[in-house]
Amino acid sequence: MHPWAARVTRDWPPFHVERRAGWRFGLADGVTKRANCALLESPEADVAEVTRFYRDRGLRPCVQVWPGEEETDARLAEHGYERVEPTLVLAREPLERPKAPGRTRIHDRPTGRWIELFAGAGSDPAWTDGVVRILGAVTAAYGVHESGDGRGCAVLDGESVAICSMGTVEAARGRGIARDVLADLLAWAHDKGARRAYLCVVAANGPALGLYRSSGFVEVSRYHNRVLPD
User: N-acetyltransferase domain: which residues (predicted)?
Assistant: First the structure.
C-alpha cells in the first residue's frame, strides 16, 4: 500500500476493513469515497474482486489509485471504472506554530453548530451522522469560527495532524474565516505536539488550494478514484 494511502485511511477510517486477494477493502455505509474504497496491497490484485465485493454489499465499487499503481489504473479503466475527483495531498513539514487569531472555538466533540454547518453544506442527516462517526474513531478537534459561519476539523495522530472537513457558508466567503479556522486548528495541534500537518483537497478546488498554499502547504502526493458506474 502506498505510504500516503495508509496515512490518510488511518486518519479517516472506515467502520469495517477486510483484506483479501491483494486488496484492502473499506466499508462505512457508503459515507465518503475515502472510507468506502479499495486500496491496493498487491500489484497482481484482480479488479473483479473489487467489483464483486462492493456490488455484493449494495455499494458502488471504488478504488483509490496512488502514484506507482499505473498498471492497476489501466486495468481498472479496461473494466469500465471511471476516473473521478483527482485529489492532491498537501503537507506543511515541519509545522511551526502559526500566528493564530484565536477566533475559533475548538472542542473535542462536534458541537451543535459544527453539525449544523456540515449539514448545511448539503449533506443529508445519514451522511452527517456517518462523518461524525468516522471522526469519532480518531482523536479529533472540531473548530467553529466565532462568527458561526465556518468550521473545520483536526485529526491528531502523534506528531502528525490532518486537517479536514473545512467549510464556510457561502454568504460569508472571502472574509478570511477559513484562514482563521485553519490557523487556529494548526496552533491547537502544535500545542498538542504535532510537528507535521497535511490535508487532502480536490485538485479542481481553486479557492481552497489558494488558501492552503498561501498557508505554507505544498504538494507531496496525489491520488484519484476509479469508480464503476451503475
Answer: 90-230
